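Re: that backbone. Tokens:
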């Protein structure tokens, strides 16, 4: 369908050229759609950009906030919880790489400041870390805000550097399931081993 083709083409161009560098004309050409269809479906370039981000709410990422609450309520092993959370983010990247790269780009550029899904996930993850500290599972001298920022940084770096890692070393999250699974495990264990109360 034309609308989906436009969104897919726009995601790729917004990631590759940035919001300013991706022209509406280039997007319509890449999508094989006429220029007027962008205004028809999205009203503006910014509306199209917002629609590109909104697609993230249709992925498993939208459940991450709920999962954090469930993990706390059910006393799920924190290492398993971190592993599951990381795996969900990476699986979203595998299924829609440009979408997740665009979401990470949005965190830095804030073109659509009313798009808050990533921010909501970060707030819930911060609350999750706070609850683990309160339950004395994690070291009590840790700051949940900094933990959340560090955790997101580990994930963002893994995703943003994937193309370079693939070119230089032949390993990619996108095409090597074993590598991806080990990367997930290492992120969760690295973070967990540094914050668990012993």
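Recovered sequence:
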């Amino acid at each position: 369908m034309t609308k989906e083709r436009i969104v897919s083409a726009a995601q790729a161009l917004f990631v590759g050229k940035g919001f300013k560098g991706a022209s509406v004309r280039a997007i319509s050409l890449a999508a094989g759609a006429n220029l007027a269809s962008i205004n028809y479906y999205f009203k503006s370039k910014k509306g199209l950009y917002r629609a590109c981000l909104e697609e993230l709410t249709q992925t498993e990422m939208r459940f991450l906030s709920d999962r954090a609450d469930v993990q706390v309520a059910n006393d799920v092993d924190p290492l398993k919880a971190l592993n599951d959370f990381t795996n969900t983010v990476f699986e979203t990247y595998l299924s829609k790489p440009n979408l997740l790269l665009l979401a990470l780009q949005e965190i830095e550029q804030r073109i659509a400041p009313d798009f808050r899904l990533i921010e909501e996930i970060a707030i819930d993850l911060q609350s999750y870390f706070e609850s683990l500290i309160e339950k004395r599972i994690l070291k009590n001298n840790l700051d949940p805000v900094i933990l959340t920022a560090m955790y997101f940084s580990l994930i963002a770096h893994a995703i943003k550097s994937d193309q370079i890692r693939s070119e230089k070393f032949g390993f990619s999250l996108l095409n090597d399931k074993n590598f991806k699974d080990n990367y997930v495990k290492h992120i969760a264990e690295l973070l967990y081993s540094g914050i668990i109360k012993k």
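DSSP finds eleven helices and no strands in the chain. The mean pLDDT is 87.
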